[in-house]
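Minutes, methods subgroup
Present: GH (chair), OT, SY

1. OT presented the first of two proteins processed in the latest run. Sequence and structure tokens recorded below as shown on screen.
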Amino acid sequence: MNKGELVDLLATKADTTKKVANALLDAFIDSVTAAVADGEKVTLVGFGSFEARERKARDGRNPKTMEPLRIPATTVPAFSPGKQFKDAVSGKTV
């Protein structure tokens, strides 16, 4: 499912226009992105949590030349699914 298909589904389920559904989805994405970028954890009970995680510096290798190199530390976004989401995906009762 792509964003357009998700907007269509949201508009149908919420009985609203695609324009409103798209605006709401954009607002949700922008809000979660800004919160996680500011170091906050966003938790949607039953669905999951979005957060920023620190990835330590580590040694790597250039796959083309096989030369060793140092990969710097960085912050990456992470999603942890909630129990209801995991159960729904695994086929357990919803």
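2. SY then presented the second protein from the same run.
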Amino acid sequence: MSDTVQSAGWRTKLSGAALVVSILAVIWFAAAALGTKYGLWGWQFGLGTMTIGWGPPIAFIATGLASIALIVGFIKSPRTQPVILGLAALLIALMLLFRLIGFGAQAASLPPIHDIQTDWDDPVRFSDTLLAQRKSADAMNPVEDDPVIPEAPGIEERWPGMGGRHVSEVQEEAERERVEDGETVPPAYDRPIEPVYFDQSPGEVAAYALRIAENRGWDIFTKPEMGEDVEQTMLEATVTSGWFGFRDDVAVRIRSIEGATRVDMRSISRVGLSDLGVNAKRVSSFLSELQDRADGRLEP
């Protein structure tokens, strides 16, 4: 019989076991996310314990077992079956491991904030109705005009010097290149979080904003007023993440200022300290698309 059909005995069994472990590891991470999304357990357990706590050991075990299986598969003929199974197991395990490493690096490179907006001097404020909805949904993060990063041992360990700082200062710092300990640190965000200006009336710009929000699948909470006579209006929406089902609230303020229409935006997570840059990315991408669609600009 040829190598492709001969049994490699215990080496094939080892490679098969490694593949099963790698597949079970994928199922573990999927269960952590989807279980959180559908309310089987809290996000602290799904993300904190299952993913961040137990996830790395599971990924390392899967990677180690797959590596051993692949090496053993190359020892002698027949090689085809054990090598294919071992290689498949290793690729799956490495995908998980690199994903976790990237997640950790991203978390370490971004500031511990979850509230982003274009104007901290004149904050975008949510409606009382949406704030009540957040409260009824047990949102842990308060909506404040001038939030401060909490001072706690865990925060100081992961982000030294961040405790007690104003979120507005940290956001501004994250938007620009800076020098720390003699080394240049690039901006944490792709672009500055800043307002956009338009020649159209607030009501006309609101129509564009609503269309973009709907196309993105956001749950619209407050529809803005539309029409040429509208001088100021607001769009409010809730955005739910795909895997864990985390919810963030968004407010887009559209008003007439100094002969132009100015659009400000705020996005805040309901739970968690660091948003991994999600809110900043949402604000910048939304305003960038709005600017492109309605021919906006960054100056009045």
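Chair's summary of item 2: The chain has nine helices and eight strands.
Next meeting: continue with the remaining queue.
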